[in-house]
Design a protein that fits this description.
The complex is a heterodimer of chains A (534) and B (145). With 534 residues, chain A is mainly beta. Chain A contains 4 helices and 33 strands. Classes of the chains: A mainly beta (534), B mainly beta (145). Chains A and B meet through strand 1, strand 17 and strand 24 of A and strand 4 and strand 5 of B.
Chain lengths: 534, 145
């Protein structure tokens, strides 16, 4: 651009329109910081001493904790709020450079910041945004706007609902700051809770913004200074999300876990071509939420984080969570929309009305879900344990007192369970017999002792009825049993061991029963298929 | 004729009279000065710039004064930091205030002036000083931004 065509934009900032305790108040200067990463906004105003009459000579009750509101703008446009909140602290200073009072301000979010005095319990499957709305009402937040919290696939996020964790309820523990709970849980889903100039806000800040930009920045467009930083240290391409571990109705420990089904090779991280990360939070009690949280992390951190810093003139229209468009021909960065992450601005007579903005956008994509649950079909055909040929059994001839089945374990697992169909097991225990050994299943992996042993349930044999066990599973019982211990990757063996009723002659003392469709469930260590690794 | 120019509360004992002297080199009487505070920022990647107009600085004037007596000088010196009315001969400055007439002379009053500085100037047989006054630019010939 030639100097001949250069333009001058002349701007006339209004005096700061401030009210303290609802009374208009002259202030010399202000600054404020609103950020999606700072739930409670902060700022300060400077006044001359002596203070105006309505501030009671600076008495505690006349200044501290008073509501304060600031508006700013240019005479060429309009005034808009730049801060609403309360005076949290003050400093008064007399010096040869002048006598001034500085009031430090906090936004409405501060009302959510003190710990609860009792446990807060919400019904299971309550929408997350409804919980937050309830907390705002409970704490008397004067103005708030809570967006619906959605997963990347568009489903509305519900919390709790797992009957095996806190009876399905959502619990905010005693002595917890609601704001901490809100920000922690929201961040999992790519949402933030933060003060804006007008209200307490919950807003998505994840992936790319979808609303149109409220400002465009680049060479020749508003910028006094423009800076871009990129950092590979921010990148993670293989996320594992770990939630609560609960015990299901069968007594099996179920760790909530989400892993990607595939991890693409990432040249920017070569070697090794990927980076792993883990998100752990006991607030995650459903697989749906765990998968959504992993997808959010993939969207936001699977590409180099670009963070822009913009110095420009102040604008009361700037608010965190809005969309801005940034491009730079010199940096060869095409115009792209970003989230406005923070707004720091201020006005004083000497320096003018200036702002520093930061902006960011996630550049990754969600990966398909992986499967943490792995199953091994130990044996599908019926097997008869015992010592007595029984014609109406599926397999009339018994296999003896013990039946061994070798298996191969693909990885290390921390939560094991066996499911099967059976009949007749431990039936001799029904009459209070305590002089017998118990039929059970053992898991062996090297060594001279079983790493786990599970007693089979007591299932009536119904011997006199001579039920047709070979015709389907009508007379069989399906059971699922937790298996304590852990299995390492490699060879292992499942051993079915029949108990002995010591009251009977040795020829018929062995417990007769049948099993079929034996499946070993393994959880807790499914791993993402990392490029070049597995 | 006793000059009616001075500083303080007119027509009371708290008014110090003095004569305003022209600049010894230029022969010109100084006038109130109200600079505009501006902040300029260049727009990166262009020749454009932004000009923020923050408002007028306070109006100031520095006058060379001739006192009838040393008592008057010290009386004015005691008023440094005080806010009173500055009375000058009408038309003395570029700015017009309330004009009133006494004797054969028209005067103008500039209320709410603060005397910020008084520096003595030695000359044998005379009591001289240089005084600086400051006041709001409002009504000093500048329009509000």
């Amino acid at each position: 651009m030639s100097v001949a065509t250069a333009t001058m934009t002349d701007l006339r900032p209004y005096p700061i329109m401030a009210t303290i305790g609802g009374v208009p108040t002259t202030v010399h200067a202000y600054d404020r910081f609103h950020s999606v990463d700072q739930p409670v906004a902060t700022g300060s105003v400077t006044l001359g001493i002596p203070l105006p009459a309505h501030l009671g000579g600076g008495a505690d009750e006349a200044v501290l904790n008073k509501p304060i509101s600031l508006q700013e703008g240019y005479r060429e446009s309009i005034l808009r709020p730049v801060f609403n909140g309360f005076i949290r602290s003050d400093t008064m200073e007399l010096s040869r450079n002048g006598n001034y009072a500085t009031f430090r301000m906090v936004g409405y979010g501060t009302l959510l910041a003190w710990p609860t005095t009792s446990e807060l319990r919400f019904p299971g499957n309550t929408y997350l945004d409804e919980i937050i709305r309830s907390l705002c009402v409970m704490r008397g937040v004067p103005s708030y706007r809570i967006d619906k919290v959605l997963t990347p696939s568009g489903a509305r996020v519900r919390m709790g609902g797992n009957a095996n964790v806190d009876d399905g309820d959502v619990i905010i523990r005693k002595k917890t700051r609601p704001l901490d709970w809100i920000t922690r849980v929201l961040a999992l889903f790519g949402y933030r809770a933060f003060d804006t100039a007008q209200e307490f806000r919950v807003h998505r800040v994840s992936g790319k913004p979808t609303l149109g930009p409220m400002g465009e920045f680049g060479e020749g467009k508003l910028i006094h200074r423009l800076q871009r930083t990129r950092d590979l240290d921010d990148m993670v391409t293989a996320w594992t999300v770990e939630g609560a571990t609960y015990t299901d109705d069968d007594g099996v420990d179920i760790p909530i876990r989400s892993i990607p089904g595939v991890v693409p090779f990432e040249p920017l991280l070569d070697p090794p071509g990927y980076r792993e990360g883990t998100i752990s939070d006991n607030e995650i009690v459903s697989q749906v939420n765990a998968d959504a949280i992993r997808q959010v992390a993939e969207i936001d951190q699977a590409s180099p984080g670009k963070r822009w810093t913009i110095n420009c003139r102040g604008n009361s229209n700037f608010r965190p969570g809005a969309t801005v468009r940034i491009g730079s021909t010199n940096m060869e960065a095409a115009d792209q929309d970003y989230w406005l992450m923070s707004v720091r601005d201020g006005l004083d007579f000497r320096s003018g009305y200036k702002a520093t903005l930061t902006a960011w956008a996630g550049g990754g994509t969600a990966l398909p879900d992986g499967e943490d649950l792995q199953t091994i079909d130990v044996r599908s055909a019926p097997v008869h344990l015992g010592d007595e040929p029984i014609p109406w059994y599926a397999v009339p001839t018994p296999s003896g007192k013990e039946f061994r089945i070798p298996i191969t374990v693909p990885d290390t697992f921390t939560s094991l369970a066996l499911s099967m169909w059976l009949h007749g097991s431990n039936s001799y225990l029904l009459d209070g017999n305590t002089d017998s050994t118990v039929s059970k299943i053992e898991v062996w992996q090297g060594g001279e002792e079983a790493i786990a042993s599970v007693d089979l349930p007591v299932v009536p044999e119904n011997y006199e009825q001579q039920l047709p066990y070979g015709s389907g599973t009508t007379h069989w019982q399906q059971v699922r049993l937790p298996v304590p211990g852990r299995l390492e990757a490699g060879s292992a063996e499942i051993r079915i061991v029949a108990g002995v009723d010591s009251r009977l002659p040795s020829s018929t003392a062995t417990d007769d029963f049948e099993l079929q469709k034996i499946v070993l469930e393994l959880r807790g260590a499914g791993v993402a298929p990392l490029p070049g690794v597995n | 004729m006793i000059p009616q120019t001075g500083f303080g509360v007119p027509d009371t004992q708290d008014f110090v009279r003095f004569t305003v002297l022209a600049d010894s080199r230029t022969g010109v009487y100084p006038t109130f000065h109200s600079p505009l505070r501006t902040v300029v920022d260049g727009i990166v990647g262009s020749d454009d710039f932004e000009l923020q107009i923050m408002g007028f600085e306070p109006a100031t004037v520095t006058l060379a004064l001739d006192f009838d007596s040393r008592d008057d000088y010290f009386k004015l010196q005691a008023m440094v930091g005080k806010k009173h009315t500055l009375v000058l001969i009408a038309g003395f400055t570029a700015f017009q205030q309330d004009v009133w007439h006494r004797g054969a002379q028209d005067y103008e009053s500039f209320p709410n002036c603060v005397l910020t500085e008084l520096v003595p100037t030695m000359r044998v047989g005379e009591t001289l000083g240089t005084a600086t006054f400051i006041r709001s630019s409002q009504g000093m010939g500048v329009s509000s931004i």
